[in-house]
């Protein structure tokens, strides 16, 4: 995972950005990070 995807995922978790605002080429990677975070919360 790229460091910038991790930054974007963190911003989404903090409700400072939405997935739609992330550059398209990074969205899949960011979504994977968000999904992994949700699995850890269950």
Description:
- With about 40 residues, the protein is mainly α.
- It has one domain (about 5-40).
- It contains two helices and no strands.
- It is globular.
- The termini are far apart.
Helices and strands, with pairings:
Blueprint: H1 3-13, H2 24-41
Low-confidence stretches: none
Shape: globular
In total, how many beta strands? 0
- Taking the alpha carbons of the first and last residues, their distance comes to 22 Å
Order of helices and strands: HH
| Main beta sheet strand tally, sense and closure | none
What's this entry about, in short?
By secondary structure, this protein is an all-alpha fold. It has 2 helices and no strands. The chain starts with a helix and ends with a helix.
What attributes does this structure have?
single chain; 42 residues; mainly alpha; 2 helices
């Amino acid at each position: 995972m790229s460091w910038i995807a991790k930054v974007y995922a963190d911003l989404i978790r903090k409700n400072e950005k939405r997935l739609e605002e992330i550059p398209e080429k990074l969205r899949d990677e960011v979504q994977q990070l968000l999904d992994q975070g949700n699995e850890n919360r269950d």
